[in-house]
């Protein structure tokens, strides 16, 4: 332990070099490439998560006072899931993919082989310090890479727990955790990696990518952005309630929970995405709402009602809400709320507790578009509502910002509006009639576009993100097209034209000299 | 130039507008642009051949084979498959996502920049261009200034065939390139050298622009000792074609050096000489079939490679050059020193070093010792060697028994790894390179899992676990109440973990500000005179770690005002509150439990009392009286029952409120006596009814004798001296009440500790 502390204190370029050297040696030796190694590591990771659930939840409570259930649902269970999926599917993923070949290269066969990239660096974020650290690692292991993980120093309890657990459970010659802040990260970034996977903000992402450029290292950047929610006025909640009642009543009438919860589905789904995800400190949580002028008051009412049901009359006391991660972020959010143009727009919540870094769910109505809160990612429990005359105008509001968000959400029953939404709004992922659920689907790639990042992961996409798709083409020595070689003649040109055209008939004609 | 840049600025704005309008997304637009490209190639074939001859001395057959023909082929494919590529792809969802539907929708990235090189000025400009168009992007193409004829052909003629609002060709050198890189793009597609690739990527980092870099590298060819002469001849033919036949070796995919076994090398060299003669004649300079070096700078670079003293001796064939016509003869070198420049830098010219190895298997180590190449060409019939080559080396592509041909295959990705580039293209991969696959999930309002929403409890946790495991049956059982939650993930577990962690307490900054554990133990009693004080003792428990105790109680009590704690003896604490409200609340909230130990709290008057005088034998508790007939659920009955206990205090609620499952009474009990389990009452109609008592927040007590005690180690004996069996149990613990009525937490989070004396 003491030695570790000592080592940490002087973690600099040299130590980074040592780490990379050790991992590269293991990689070159081919240790990580074997299927057995990958399976063993993933199993160990799964075991590590299963055996340390309370510790993980406690660390998350320390760092973010995250409710245990949220920790379990969004971090622990998600990670276990992706481990299990990788274990189940990996055999299929690593199989070379057969590719068809054309007449141009006849006779031949081709395949696309997934090979590990080498030694990869994963830099993770503080808002889901456990999941965002290990989920990429699952992909990296499945793809057969050696990994260095740098968890965020802003979530220190989780970071030190990760360092301890990973060292205990995983193969430390190939997978390492380096704890540290800016200087350690800079030291790591100086080194040559085969891939850098960064989760965080756009400012640091630029630094990461610039550092990667020096070594021509490909990067995956998972950033955030202002993810909008469009709520159409036409969503008739009452109708759906009846149907849901029908749907669930036969299942059970024991649980009063069910009957209460089916009200206000849309509102609930927004709340679950906004405040139920680490109190708004999630990259995909809704950032602001766009709705029509007529509908805004109704929406607001239902928000107030549902919020009270979820978090009680005094949400600052609720154990089901996370706190703001640190005083810097608390100050930043306070600044957003205290701006002159904005402070008068608070219609719900607004309570703050500086000592405990808690901010109650806050809703702001009709916030000016040029305010601070509408121009930077909020990343906290504040939810501005923007009003437009027609719901179709909301697409312009989103597109005119010029940046592409990580996610965009739409609540509507109108088929046409859905189609238009999919066609006109560009974002990492779109969800119709729900929030944040696309994150849990491993068949969907999770990643941003433009300012919200590049590259995607989850499920097989994680594997792909950490693999190189090597093209392998097999040719025989038979059938060599003499036209390929000099001396070049006009006849060869004609034959080539036919060959590249791919039509058998014209090839024969060219061979016979008829064309 | 400035004017050009200002124009560019406005042009880019217009292009962005066009993108936003959705014009480029239309299938018809993409189709018409691709058709435009086709017409361009068809109508300008002669001009293209001429331009390529002027720039690089390419023969028109070579020009067709490597450039025009390939582009035509790619265009045909794109036009044929465009609709298929553009359609969205369904993503499978588990049943868990009831009535949901998800798909991957390809969408254009927006405005992209294509920077192309001089060696295949047409193919490497149009191949990415057509990919970008097929994906629906607006494109700026900057061809290389080092192939001026082609560049001006593209600049002057190509726009006639395409939509000029969204597709632009910009001519210029490095200065223009630099200006372009300052702008914000949605993708930069660069083909060229690794040095410039780094510059491009650094510039892209400023705007977080994704890049595709198609670079080069020293692509090795490995020639196994083939026994059949036909195979040998074909292999050598293909190597020669790949080396000298493609723009005189100035291609990123051309063979850079050849690895052969020592014993086989002389035969290879002889065969090569023969075949080169066959292809290029006795005087290759006169032959139209070998390309020129692009410019003087590159000519001199190649000349320097050859005239290196150590290298010069290794030339076994060719080596002549003509500076005026920028011609270099196909040249073969055998075993030039491995540390010479020719073996460390990409050659990019018609020089072929042959490296001889003892065993052909050594080639794998040889390749791995160098940066990852764009392609590896292996001519072998040995199956094991092939497999090793695929699995043990890393490169953009591996081709067996041929070279360069992978460039023409549309079904495999073309691109490098490491030093040879990032990203890939060709065929559908080109479309993918310029597309963003947007994840779209559609849900209906009809079904929803109520357990997705807070407030959280263990029941919801259990449901989540089964849902994540796709254990639908288990889920159903839980919903129907047939399966009990086996998880205990409540706060108590976590607290005990925290408590363990506290043993090596490490004060973070945040803790420090709130928990000021000072050394101020000389505080006089007068200091507390205005405060409200409590004395607390951990009832018959083991010694409790005082820091943990203090911190935990601070967390538990959440006071508004200041709270001071002092340890005054083993497991004995003195608490003083600055706020009366806190004091009253804590008093009312008794019993106070810590780690299932009862902490008995007593009011304490600083002025008149001594700690020793305080009697800790009694504590206030809430009792649930269970089993009363509804008729008897009223205050009077509750009082009567309460008086049978040691000391009745009050009843919770009044008349109406009592009509629940139980009546709640608050009593003072004697901790040294066994817990009362209930009472018999005689009903009016004569029969006798057992009324049971359940205790709220009951701390540890002995299941045998029912006395509050950490643990009765000795056997519990009754009056007669016989050992008692288990008489008590967990049934005495009242079930958790949904709402904590008696306590309202109105404080602001954690208590403000002050001057806590932790010295014992």
UniProtKB/TrEMBL annotation, chain A:
GO terms for molecular function: aldehyde dehydrogenase (NAD+) activity. Transmembrane segments: none annotated. Residues 12-241, 266-472 form the Aldehyde dehydrogenase domain. It comes from the Eukaryota. GO terms for cellular component: cytoplasm. The keyword Protease does not apply. The active site is at 222, 283. It catalyses: an aldehyde + NAD(+) + H2O = a carboxylate + NADH + 2 H(+). Keywords: NAD, Oxidoreductase. GO terms for biological process: aldehyde metabolic process; response to abscisic acid; response to water deprivation. Belongs to the aldehyde dehydrogenase family. PANTHER family: ALDEHYDE DEHYDROGENASE, ALDEHYDE DEHYDROGENASE TYPE III, ISOFORM Q. This is Aldehyde dehydrogenase. It comes from Theobroma cacao (Cacao).
UniProtKB/TrEMBL annotation, chain B:
GO terms for biological process: aldehyde metabolic process; response to abscisic acid; response to water deprivation. GO terms for molecular function: aldehyde dehydrogenase (NAD+) activity. It holds the Pfam family Aldedh. Residues 25-440 form the Aldehyde dehydrogenase domain. Residues 669-707 form the Zinc knuckle CX2CX4HX4C domain. The keyword tRNA processing does not apply. Gene3D superfamilies: Aldehyde Dehydrogenase, Chain A, domain 1, Aldehyde Dehydrogenase, Chain A, domain 2. One of its GO terms (cellular component) is cytoplasm. Keywords: NAD, Oxidoreductase. It is an enzyme of class 1 (oxidoreductase). It comes from the Eukaryota. It catalyses: an aldehyde + NAD(+) + H2O = a carboxylate + NADH + 2 H(+). Its EC number is 1.2.1.3. The keyword Membrane does not apply. Belongs to the aldehyde dehydrogenase family. This is aldehyde dehydrogenase (NAD(+)). The lineage of its organism: Eukaryota, Viridiplantae, Streptophyta, Embryophyta, Tracheophyta.
């Amino acid at each position: 332990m003491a030695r570790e502390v000592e080592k940490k204190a002087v973690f600099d370029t040299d130590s980074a070099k040592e780490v990379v050297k050790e991992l590269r040696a293991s990689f070159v030796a081919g240790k990580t490439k074997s299927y057995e190694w990958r399976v063993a590591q993933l199993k160990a990771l799964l075991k590590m998560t299963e055996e340390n659930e309370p510790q993980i939840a406690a660390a998350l409570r320390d760092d973010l006072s995250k409710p245990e259930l949220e920790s379990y649902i969004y971090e622990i269970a998600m990670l276990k899931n992706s481990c299990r999926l990788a274990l189940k599917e990996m055999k299929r993923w690593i199989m070379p993919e057969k590719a068809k070949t054309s007449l141009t290269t006849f006779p031949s066969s081709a395949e696309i082989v997934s090979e590990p990239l080498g030694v990869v660096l994963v830099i993770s974020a503080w808002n889901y310090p456990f999941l965002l650290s290990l989920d990429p690692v699952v992909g990296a292991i499945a793809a057969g890479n050696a990994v260095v993980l740098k968890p965020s120093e802003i979530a220190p309890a989780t970071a030190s727990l990760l360092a301890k657990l990973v060292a205990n459970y995983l193969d430390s010659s190939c997978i390492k955790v380096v704890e540290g802040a800016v200087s350690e990260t800079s030291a790591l970034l100086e080194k040559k990696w085969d891939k850098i996977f960064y989760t965080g903000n756009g400012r640091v992402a630029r630094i990461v990518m610039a550092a990667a450029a020096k070594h021509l290292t490909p990067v995956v950047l998972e950033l955030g952005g202002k993810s909008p929610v469009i709520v159409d006025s036409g969503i008739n909640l009452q109708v759906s309630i009846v149907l849901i009642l029908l749907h669930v009543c036969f299942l059970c009438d024991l649980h009063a929970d069910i009957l209460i919860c089916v009200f206000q589905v849309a509102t609930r789904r927004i709340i679950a995405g906004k405040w139920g995800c680490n109190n708004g400190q999630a990259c995909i949580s809704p950032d602001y709402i766009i709705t029509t002028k007529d509908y805004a008051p109704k929406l607001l009412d239902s928000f107030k009602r549902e919020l009270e049901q979820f978090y009680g009359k005094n949400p600052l006391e609720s154990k089901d809400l996370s706190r703001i991660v640190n005083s810097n972020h608390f100050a930043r959010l306070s600044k957003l709320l205290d701006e002159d143009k904005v402070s008068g727009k608070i219609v719900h919540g607004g309570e703050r507790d500086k000592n405990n870094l808690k901010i109650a769910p806050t809703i702001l109505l009709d916030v000016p578009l040029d305010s601070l809160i509408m121009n930077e990612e909020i990343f906290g429990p504040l939810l501005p509502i923007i009003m437009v005359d027609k719901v179709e105008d909301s697409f312009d509001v989103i597109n005119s910002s010029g940046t592409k968000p990580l996610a965009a959400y739409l609540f509507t029953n109108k088929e046409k509006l859905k189609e238009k939404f999919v066609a006109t709004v560009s974002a990492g992922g779109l969800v119709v009639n729900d929030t944040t659920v696309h994150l849990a689907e491993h068949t969907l790639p999770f990643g941003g576009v433009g300012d919200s990042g590049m590259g995607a992961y989850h499920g097989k996409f994680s594997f792909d993100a950490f693999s190189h798709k090597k093209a392998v083409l097999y040719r025989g020595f038979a059938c060599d097209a003499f036209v390929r070689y000099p001396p070049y003649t006009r006849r060869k040109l004609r034959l080539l034209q036919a060959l590249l055209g791919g039509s058998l008939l014209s090839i024969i004609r060219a061979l016979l000299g008829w064309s | 130039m400035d004017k050009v840049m200002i124009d560019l600025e406005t042009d880019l704005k217009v292009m962005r507008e066009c993108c936003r309008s959705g014009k480029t997304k239309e299938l018809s637009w993409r189709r018409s642009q691709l058709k435009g490209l086709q017409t361009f190639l068809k109508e300008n074939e002669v001009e293209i051949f001429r331009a390529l001859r002027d720039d690089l001395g390419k023969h028109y057959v070579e020009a067709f084979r490597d450039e025009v023909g390939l582009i035509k082929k790619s265009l045909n494919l794109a036009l044929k498959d465009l609709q298929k590529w553009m359609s969205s792809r369904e993503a499978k969802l588990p049943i868990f996502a009831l009535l949901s539907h998800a798909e991957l929708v390809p969408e254009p990235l927006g405005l992209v920049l294509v920077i192309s090189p001089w060696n295949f000025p047409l193919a490497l400009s149009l191949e990415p261009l057509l990919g970008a168009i097929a994906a629906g992007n607006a494109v700026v193409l900057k061809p290389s200034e080092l192939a001026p004829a082609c560049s001006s052909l593209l600049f002057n003629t190509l726009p006639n065939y395409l939509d000029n609002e969204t597709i632009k060709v910009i001519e210029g050198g490095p200065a223009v390139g630099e200006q372009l890189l300052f702008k914000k793009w949605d993708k930069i597609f660069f083909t060229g050298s690794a040095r410039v690739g780094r510059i491009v990527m650094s510039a892209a980092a400023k705007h977080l622009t994704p890049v595709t870099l198609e670079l080069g590298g020293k692509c090795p060819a490995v020639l196994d000792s083939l026994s059949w002469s036909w195979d040998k001849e074909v292999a050598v033919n293909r190597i020669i074609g790949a080396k000298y036949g493609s723009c005189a070796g100035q291609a990123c995919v051309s063979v850079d050096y050849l690895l052969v076994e020592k014993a086989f090398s002389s035969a290879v060299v002889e065969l090569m000489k023969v075949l080169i003669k066959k292809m290029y004649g006795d005087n290759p300079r006169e032959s139209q079939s070998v390309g020129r070096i692009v410019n003087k700078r590159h000519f001199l670079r190649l000349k320097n490679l050859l005239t290196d003293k150590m290298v010069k001796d290794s030339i076994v064939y060719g080596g002549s050059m003509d500076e005026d016509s920028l011609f270099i003869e196909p040249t073969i070198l055998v075993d030039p020193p491995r540390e010479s420049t020719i073996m460390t830098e990409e050659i990019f010219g018609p020089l072929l070093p042959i490296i001889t190895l003892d065993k052909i298997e050594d080639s794998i180590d040889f390749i791995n010792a160098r940066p990852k190449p764009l392609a590896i060409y292996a001519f072998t019939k040995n199956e094991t060697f092939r497999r090793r080559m695929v699995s043990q080396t890393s490169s953009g592509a591996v081709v067996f028994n041929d070279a360069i041909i992978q460039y023409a295959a549309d079904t495999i990705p073309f691109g490098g790894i490491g030093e040879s580039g990032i990203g890939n293209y060709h065929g559908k991969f080109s479309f993918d390179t310029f597309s963003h696959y947007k994840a779209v999930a559609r849900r209906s309002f009809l079904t929803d899992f109520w357990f997705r929403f807070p407030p959280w409890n263990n029941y919801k946790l259990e449901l989540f676990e089964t849902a994540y495991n796709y254990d639908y049956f288990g889920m159903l059982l839980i919903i129907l109440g047939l399966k009990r939650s086996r998880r205990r993930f409540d706060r108590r577990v976590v607290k005990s973990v925290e408590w363990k962690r506290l043993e090596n307490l490490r004060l973070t900054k945040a803790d420090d500000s709130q928990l000021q554990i000072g050394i101020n133990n000389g505080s006089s009693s007068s200091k507390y005179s205005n405060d409200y004080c409590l004395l607390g003792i951990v009832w018959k428990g083991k010694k409790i770690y005082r820091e943990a105790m203090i911190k935990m109680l601070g967390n538990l009590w959440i006071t508004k005002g200041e709270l001071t704690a002092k340890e005054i003896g083993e497991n004995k604490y003195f608490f003083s509150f600055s706020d009366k409200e806190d004091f009253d609340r804590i008093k009312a909230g008794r019993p106070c439990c810590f780690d299932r130990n009862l902490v008995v709290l007593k009011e304490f008057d600083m002025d008149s009392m001594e700690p020793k005088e305080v009697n800790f034998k009694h504590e206030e508790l809430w009792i649930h009286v269970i089993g009363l007939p509804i008729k008897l659920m009223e205050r009077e009955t509750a009082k009567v029952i309460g008086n049978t206990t040691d000391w009745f205090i009050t009843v919770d609620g009044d008349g109406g409120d009592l009509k629940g499952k139980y009546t709640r009474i608050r009593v003072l009990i004697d901790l040294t006596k066994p817990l009362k389990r209930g009472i018999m009452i005689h009903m009016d109609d004569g029969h006798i009814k057992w009324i049971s008592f359940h205790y709220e927040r009951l701390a540890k007590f002995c299941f045998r004798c029912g006395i509050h005690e950490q643990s009765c180690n000795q056997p519990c004996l009754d009056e007669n001296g016989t050992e008692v069996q288990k008489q008590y149990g967990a049934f005495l613990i009242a079930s958790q009440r949904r709402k904590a009525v008696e306590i309202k937490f109105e404080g602001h989070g954690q208590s403000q500790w002050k001057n806590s004396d932790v010295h014992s």
